[in-house]
Every structure is written in structure tokens, then in C-alpha cells.
Amino acid sequence: HSSEARRTDLMTITRHVLNEQSKYPESRGDFTILLNHIVLGCKFVCNSVSKSGLAKLLGLAGETNVQGEQQKKLDVLSNEVFVKALVSSGRTCILVSEEDEEATFVEPSKRGKYIVVFDPLDGSSNIDCGVSIGTIFGIYSVKDMDNPTLNDVLQPGKDMIAAGYCMYGSSCTLVLSTGNGVNGFTLDPSLGEFILTHVDIKIPKRGKIYSINEGNAKNWDMPTTRYVQNCKFPEDGSSPKSLRYIGSMVADVHRTMLYGGIFMYPADKKSQNGKLRVLYEVFPMSFLMEQAGGQAFTGKKRALEIVPEAIHERSPVFLGSYDDVEDIKAMYAAAA
Length: 336
Ligand code: AHM
Ligand code: MG
What we know:
Blueprint: H1 2-8, H2 13-21, H3 30-57, H4 74-88, E1 92-97, E2 104-105, E3 111-122, E4 133-141, H5 150-153, E5 162-168, E6 172-177, E7 183-188, E8 193-198, E9 209-211, H6 222-232, E10 242-243, H7 249-259, E11 262-265, H8 278-291, E12 295-297, E13 317-320, H9 322-335
Parallel strand pairs: 1-3, 9-10, 9-11
Antiparallel strand pairs: 1-2, 3-4, 4-5, 5-6, 6-7, 7-8, 11-13, 12-13
The chain binds 2,5-anhydro-1,6-di-O-phosphono-D-mannitol and magnesium ion.
2,5-anhydro-1,6-di-O-phosphono-D-mannitol (AHM) binds at residues 122-125, 213, 247-249, 252, 275.
């Protein structure tokens, strides 16, 4: 009767995290409270994203509302919701958002021990045509709660204590790791709860898909060019890989996680450090990939070993199935 049990014994994300945290005797529920506020932000954004097409149809977007304010753009709105939810959780001390030039230092009366780095709504070019977009987040602990400094944020990704993303697609899926593997939760809209649907996600050791913006090929370096050439014309006589590229990091990484393969945003002649941001794009996704048994590489080293010098710094990244990332590492080693 296990299917019956599954239907009546719902493992919500809160219950799951409470279970995980109960393994640590010193845990006092702070992380669970923090996560609940992140989840609230995700639910809000999910709701706004699903209504945004309708709002456009009814001519709401871009119009002024009753207070005479312009309707806020979705990414700006999402950022406000996350910042307010995180500050009011009372569990954060520093926030870094893709939308804000400067880091936010939480006032002492509302301060907690966690640092949250996030991209509230990633994949902005996909918003207006209804393609999947997402939220990405990473969590660190501060060293000295009474004295938070920017250095607390500029830690290598391997020091994160948790990372995750929420994808606003055909369903709303939240994928989370607290350093004990990766689990996926799907929002049940009728309950308003994220329910555990993807237990202990492991990425296939090798995949059949490569994912990259090939429009930049003219400016790639030699190892990337060779690697992609080999995806299409494999020298060992194996079948060519399929190409999938959505242009939303969350959606491209989510597919890579479930189906296997490799996602790449390399350096190119125009952008020496690629496009993706270290703190709230490269680090959380690399953390999740490693936790799922995959790898993340920058072209020079393990992505989680980058020591960022600025909060909006960028880095090239190659992440996905263990063996596929081994191949690109070999291309770089051969070129060195
Ligand atoms: P954004 O923060 O402006 O949305 O840019 C980030 C997005 C990622 O989601 C995605 O992987 C990448 O940009 C796609 O870039 P490109 O359009 O250059 O292929
Ligand atoms: Mg982004």
C-alpha cells in the first residue's frame, strides 16, 4: 500500500528540512525559518509569473494602477518580495541580489547569522514569451554576527551551507541541497505547499545533450570550439549529442540535472569571464551539480574553488554529468 501512503503522508519541504536539521543537536530551527521565507518568495513569484501573461492580455502590464504607480516589472517586483521576506525572517545579515548594485546589510535588530546570495528572477529575456524562468539562491553563514563585512560574502562556493533554485515552468519546482544530496519539490497549487517529488537526485554519469549559446562560436577559445565540434562529429565513432538551449540558466541546468549532459557558458573574446555571475549563478548551480554527483569547472579549476573579489563578478562555467565535464577538462589540459 505504499502508493496509498504516498498520497496521504505528504513530505512538505518544511517537514523535510526539519527532519534533516534534527540530525544536528545544536540546530534551533533558524535554517528552517530562513528557508520558509525563501519558499514564500518563490510562491509569490510563481503566482506573479503565471498571471503575467493574463495581465498583458487584459492590458494591465505597463499601465498605472489605482495609486497612480506604474505597474512594476516582474524582475523588480520579485526582487522586492525576496528582499523583504529575507529581512523580515530575522535570520539574515547580508543579502546580495543580482538586481541590487550594493549588498544589503540588515539592521542589527533584525539580524541573523545567514547570508543569502540570489538572482530573484533569472532568464529575463524569456519573461515576455512565457518560457521557463527561475530564482537561484545560495546560503552562507556569517563568521561574526556582530560584525558582518563584505568579506563574509566573498567566500568560495564550497563554503556554502545550502543552495537551490526554483523553476517557474509547466509546474513550479524547487530543487534544494543542504549539503546532503539534492532533492526536488513540486508546488501543489491547491495546498500551496512544495511536496517532495524528486528524492535524492543523481545526475547520469554521462549524458547525450550539450547546451550552449552557439551564436557566440566565432569568439570561443580553442578548447570550447574543439569540445563542441566533438559533440557533433564524435571522433570515437559514438553518436553525436543533441543540442538543447533555452537561454534560462535554471531551465537548462534543471534539464541537465535530470537527463544528464553538459551546460556551458564559456569565456569568449568579447567577454573574457563569460556572462554568468559567480555568487548567485555559478556557485549555487555548481554546488547542486556536485551534490548530485556531477562536476562544475571554469576552464581552469573547480568552480566552487573560485574566491570572488567582487559581488557581481563573472566566471566561465562548464557543468553537468561527471564524464562529460571530464572531457572538457581534458580539452583544456591538452591546450595548456
Ligand atoms: P539574465 O540575468 O539577464 O537573465 O541573464 C542570465 C541568463 C541565464 O539564465 C542564461 O543561462 C544566460 O543568461 C543566457 O545568455 P545568452 O542569451 O547570452 O545565451
Ligand atoms: Mg541572472
